[in-house]
Write the structure tokens for this entry.
Amino acid sequence: MSIEVIGTVAIALCLLIGSGFVAVGVLGLLKFNDPMTRLHAPTKVGTVGIGALLLASMGHSFLIGESSMHELLIMAFLFVTAPISAHFIAKVNIHSRSCETPPAPPEDATWSTLNVDEEFEAEVLDQR
Amino acid sequence: MARAYQWLLPHPFLTLLLAVVWTLLQNNISFGMVVFGIILGIIIPRMTAIWWPDTPTGIRFGKLGSYSLIVMWDIVVANIQVAWIVLTVPNAKLKPAWIVVPLELRQPEAITMLAGTITLTPGTVSADLSSEGHSLLVHVLHTDDPDAVLDDIKTRYERRLKEIFQ
């Protein structure tokens, strides 16, 4: 077997694994029935899914002789930004009380998302 | 000399990172692009210096490397676990839970790294920080034993991060 055949098979395998994980992520998003558990499927399964797809893209670029390293950057940015967006969605869920209210923290007064001036919040809601 | 260095390079690691990112963005390595990357790496940290009030000092890069490897391995394992839960556990049997992690870390950079790690690894999402920053709220997708998950976070990640940031 030549290196090209092996490379092509490896790339195809990466594509299959990647799309499989992304499919599971979407399935989880559809299947779970409350906002906090829904958040789990795409944030995690997505990283390896996209990672495998990017690995396939990088492998392909090396195989055809036009090496590309952009994928490494995409992966790095994805790993940095995925937790932030998950964090914000979780904060919105807590703030809008659309999930179970979390237990109070042991040391401080409350969670920072719930730490709002109630009069101010009522005022903002009135203005809408 | 030391003060000139401090003025020119307030965050040497950020400078290096920006230069590498710029070179990767160009997708080919040429002398001009590397030099331009270094120029950007000097200008950007200087212009954004007001948003970086204290530089984290004494980061142990060797430990940071081994920590990254552990986290990457955990991410792969976590993906398989979560995929398995999504495919096999019916909604009625799912046991989600809130976990409160009391933090020993104090530096914002270290807490950010811990929160990011928690979100990327086994069935956990870091949801909120307490109002004074002494504990972290974590949501677990499916667990029979929340205390075991808490222990795992404390010993596997927080202890290592404490060593990295001293």
Notes: The radius of gyration of chain B is 20 Å. Residues 61-165 of chain B form a domain with the TATA-Binding Protein fold (CATH 3.30.310). The CA atoms of residues 44 and 80 of chain B lie 39 Å apart. Chain B has a mean pLDDT of 81.
